[in-house]
Amino acid sequence: MTGRPEILFPLFADITALDGVGPKTAQNLEHIAITKPRDLLMTLPMGGVDRHRRGSIKEVVPPATLTVEVTIHDHIPPKQRGRPYRVNVSDDDTSFQLVFFHARGDYVQRQLPTGQKRIVSGKLELFDGIAQMVHPDYMVPTAQADEIPPYEPIYPLTAGVTQRLMWKATRDALSRAPDLAEWIDPSLKTKEGWPDWHAALEAAHTPAAATALAPHDPARARLAYDELFAHQVTLALARAQVRQKPGRASAGDGALRAKVLAALEFAPTGAQTRAVQEIAADLGTDLRMNRLLQGDVGSGKTFVALMALLTVVEAGGQGVMMAPTEILARQHLEGLRPLAEAAGVVLELLTGRDKGGERQAKLDALARGDIQILVGTHAVFQKDVAFADLRLAVIDEQHRFGVAQRMELGAKGQAVDVLVMTATPIPRSLSLAQYGDMDVSVLDEKPPGRTPVQTALVSTERMDEVIAKLQSAVAEGRQAYWVCPLVEESEVSDMTAAEERFKRLRAVFGEGQVGLVHGQMPPAEKDAAMAKFVAGQTNVLVATTVIEVGVNVPNASIMLIERAESFGLAQLHQLRGRVGRGAAASTCLLMYQAPLTENGRRRLEILRETEDGFRISEEDLAMRGAGDVIGTAQSGLPRFRIADLERQTALMQLAQSDARKLLHDDPALSTARGQAVRALLWLMEQDRAIRLLSVG
Fold it and tell me: Using DSSP, how many helices (H) and how many strands (E) does the chain show?
């Protein structure tokens, strides 16, 4: 793929070439990420002002914006400083005043010569019963009437940039936009009734009415689709790149899996069975697997992962399961060990704690192929860890492992298949944007045997009452988590909040009954406090959100979240998922500080209504926006200028299937449509895709 096509040069020229944009304005525009004509074209109006011409101001009810032709009568300069300058005018029907503050008299005289006609447009207001237009937005001679757009688009602005300037610059940019060959599938374009790219730009920047500003307006929908499609073509190219690398087929005979199924207390859910089949089908081909297993808290991802690992063991290979922390790695080990034993499979743990001779013995067994499944933390990445035949890597909690680490792990074996598990239910549109290069399996059913969690809201004013209830629950042998609020940004204050709460509860429950875990503790202390709670030696665990991911204490049946309104929905849902794991009826108390904001109340009520993580994540997305849901900094989520992930999920799905089909039919993008798509990738600055194409 050679350099940028020449036809696009005008859109990537210096922004100062545009009408009205000098070096100073160019600097100001940089604040809203506009550095070239292309960026300006992708910055669509967010509102509009109706400036259709009226016969008289009597046609509107003030305050209102209107445009009307007037005859200019007498000028009334101010009697003293600081008073306004007034001009009496009349339209077809009545008279009113134009008002100017701090105006130089000669300027107003030149603009509005007595006896002449002018078209004025601006906001009409009533002041002491007199109709006035203060500082009209437009005052033009009748011959220049077309300078006033009938419906004026309103652009996002930044200091030093006016609407008038944006209007002029966008018109100039539009005149430089070339006619590009069509990259959208013709049948899709016809079905959706979308205009050509150039026509869509023109229409989006020249809306005729407020309806043209809606995301589903054909011109806007088309431009949003272009953006999503370019992104999905990039992801599809990345996916094709992974799949081009020869994989290895690992088709087991099912013997080990049958033993595990026989040892299970419950039959797997339909969703689990489906996911196991999808993964086995991937493993059985000689294409590389790159699959995301997405499941809500307690949907049984570990079982699915084990079945995948057993498939490669049946085929004579080894598997590894990676967890982000030692606590989680040990938990996976405990969860998997009884089932692995039922199948007669050797399972071992490798973490940073393994030292000396013991570690060496494990490494030797691994290299010989005696250890069939290894569970570990990132200690598994170390240079001296060698496998006899690694075929599958299962990675828990995607966001803790970067793509680079996935590659490193892949290098440990020949053509390793990858399965990533995440317990954060991500709305469909975001998972497509973030993991569009992966195939996705979703666990959307709860296995039997999980007790529903009662969720209740209570104000912090009733703290004493809550503590008294907790005392009687603990007396009955129950265990509870007490999660302290997130205080501002500083971790120090999180720590203080937790320590204060710990002291108060220790005074109530007695020494040795209350544990404490927070982010500032040394890992060994944290593990020790967790271990005591797991073993039932402490009854109440005071914690900051470090317990959010994965800790499993079946006897813990109470979750108290203090200042719940300061947490995100997804986080609250994850925390609540820590209880309801045993046979006891579980409770989650959301303590809030009154008064709650409208938004805060809505968030807590959604939690009370549902335990469906996918529904919660959709609501979270609608309320907070995409960046916040995944935390934009580490999300790798693309920044779209036009497309709206919250409202255009269906477009994203369309873009993904279209992109995958296109690359299936035309892997080198060499057909006429393929060439048009290349131009789109340059236009949308999809550098990653362009690099993949030039490598390909």
Answer: 25, 22
The whole-number mean pLDDT for each consecutive block of 10 residues of the chain, a chain of 696 residues, reads 80 88 87 89 89 88 89 88 88 90 81 90 89 90 85 85 87 92 94 95 89 88 94 82 72 84 84 91 84 77 90 91 82 85 90 86 91 87 84 74 56 74 70 70 74 84 88 87 69 67 86 82 79 85 67 79 81 80 80 82 83 70 50 49 78 88 89 92 81 60
DSSP β-bridge partners for residue 459 = 592
Residue type, 369: G
- Minimal CA–CA distance to 287: which of 233, 239, 337, 230? 239
Give yes or no for a contact between 365 and 381, defined as CB atoms under 8 angstroms apart: no
Token digits of residue 602: 């809505």
What is the secondary structure of 130-193 as a DSSP string?
Answer: EEEEES-SEEE-GGGGGGS-SEEEE----TT--HHHHHHHHHHHHHHPPP----S-HHHHHHHT
The phi, psi pair for 3, rounded to 5°, reads: -65, -175
Neighbours of 74 (CB within 10 A): 9
Lookup: tokens for 610: 């549902």
DSSP 448: T
Structure-token pair, residue 326: 């030692």
> 3-state DSSP helix/strand/coil percent for the chain, to nearest 5?
45, 20, 35
> What region does 632 belong to: left with phi over 0, alpha with psi -120 to 50, or beta?
alpha
d(Cα 274, Cα 607) in Å, to the nearest integer?
28
Q: Which residues contact 280 (CB under 8 A, 6 or more apart)?
A: 251, 252, 307, 308, 311
Tokens of 597: 């904001």
Q: Mapping DSSP to helix (H, G, I), strand (E, B) and coil, where does residue 266 land?
A: coil
3 state DSSP class of 376 = strand
